[in-house]
Design brief:
Blueprint lengths: L1 H26 L10 H8 L2 E2 L3 E4 L5 E8 L10 E7 L5 H9 L4 E4 L8 E4 L9 E6 L2 E8 L7 H17 L5
Antiparallel strand pairs: 1-3, 2-3, 3-4, 4-8, 5-6, 6-7, 7-8
């Protein structure tokens, strides 16, 4: 009888410890597939967007693609915005390197509460607007495609910087 009473607090502590360790996993429900509204996108980019289309996310997360409506290539309003909300694999830096591949630079956005970075693509990846931030236990990645390629590197970098700033103006999720 004495052994059972002595073992009970130990089992209780072990069970409590296991419950505390598992609590963040249980509390972290899967993020919604398409967390942004077309109105929020229109407010930032100045062109209408259709409702998002869910896409597979990486690492057990979710993804969504939003496509502009009525935009055109001539004035760079034929756009697509993709958002991926992913549980991190290791540190945020490690996660970005593993999911985006080698050769990219992750440039911190000064003063950003969610530790946002802009992505400067390297290697064989052509440059495009791309940002990432940490929020609610997730890594959130935003990509913008549809801009015309500019041969002039300075003009291209300036436009990518402008669009990265717009991506960072979108409502933060989750």
């Amino acid at each position: 009888m004495t052994h059972a009473l002595v073992a009970a607090p130990s089992l209780l502590r072990t069970g409590l410890l296991a419950a505390l360790l598992a609590a963040p996993l249980l509390a972290q429900a899967a993020p919604p597939a398409c967390p942004l509204s077309p109105d929020a996108l229109k407010k930032v980019f100045g062109v209408a967007f259709a409702a998002g289309t869910p896409e597979p996310g990486m690492t057990g997360g979710s993804g969504c693609k939003y496509t502009s409506q009525g935009g055109n290539k001539k004035n760079n309003t034929d756009l697509s915005v993709s958002i991926f909300v992913e549980p991190p694999m290791g540190t945020p830096e490690m996660h970005r390197k593993m999911t985006m591949g080698p050769g990219h630079q992750f440039l911190p956005v000064a003063g950003d509460a969610d530790k946002a970075v802009t992505v400067k693509h390297g290697g064989s990846v052509p440059p495009f607007p791309d940002v990432s931030y940490e929020r609610g236990g997730y890594i959130v990645k935003l990509h913008l495609t549809g801009l015309d390629y500019l041969d002039d590197a300075k003009a291209r970098d300036a436009r990518i910087d402008e669009m990265n700033k717009k991506l960072l103006q979108l409502p933060r999720v989750p």
